[in-house]
Design goal:
Phosphoribosyl-aminoimidazole Synthetase, Chain A, domain 2; five-stranded mixed β-sheet; alpha+beta; 60s Ribosomal Protein L30, Chain: A; seven-stranded mixed β-sheet; globular
Amino acid sequence: MSWQERVGDVGDGGRRMMEFLEKYIFPKINVESREDAGIVNEDFIITTDSYTIKPIIFPGGSIGKLAICGSANDVAVMGAKPTYFLLSLIADENLEMNKFLHVVEDISKYLREIDGRMLGGDLKTLKGDGEEIYVNTTCIGTRNRWLELNLEVVRNYRNYPHSWIRNCGAGEDEVVIITGNIAEHATAILLAREELGFQLDVSSDCKHLWFPIRKAMEEGGITAMKDATRGGIASALNEIAEQSGVGMVIEENKIPIREEVRSFCEVLGLDPYAMANEGVSVMTVVREMAEDVLEALHKAGEKNARIVGYTTAEHREVILRTELGSERILHMPYGSTVPRIC
């Protein structure tokens, strides 16, 4: 690497970030997991994440809510109960105290909502433009009876060697479910910046996924799962397909998306499939249990959860199929399609 090279904007997910990690990080640091959480042992998994977003308070939440829910969701999609947390805050020394307290209160509120324990943390300040706060959260997820129920059901239908729900766990001829309306977090953040001149009633979907996932695991049959954050459902679907060695066929007209969000994306030339979500997961389920899992998600409040397609051994791509029967490949996003939003 020459001294002129810079890191660049590689933190937005997608293929570009993975190429960067494979080239500069993984050869130097022996990272054991390519998933959002690392496995400690049969009882614990752990994740850590850093959050930076503007504005720090937005319709549907704040960076504090985003940090607690985001890290909790990273372990929840592997079947773990979000239990223990660590927190680090880096705040602009000129940040208004009411905004700082708003963020801290959201951290407290959504920690209580998940019945989590904050084990410790750190606070630093820096000189900036007066509007910044950066949040790092670490979350430890724990083994639980709902995960055990889910794995037991999966193993009634096929061999499943994993002790947690893994990105690599999807098998052939399974059903693909998306748990909620897509692209709302990214849309809400773009609108909150008040630079586009649109007037839409859209809030971030940021929330804890543990509660609907727990309900779905009670029915059982989930083989792979990922929250569709950076890179959206395009990234989540491709990661599961690639790591599991299967292809997918997705019915485009079944993907849950609000019409006003779809229109917003069309006007700006944005790809809603690559836009970030903070309360949506993609999952694969053994075919025999798919309707039961979908009903459980609906009962848990995920009214927009939909069966959108299936896995296949016929190819290794994620294929979008339209109502007219035409098909196209849904590629892994290369980089960010919008300004940094999470």
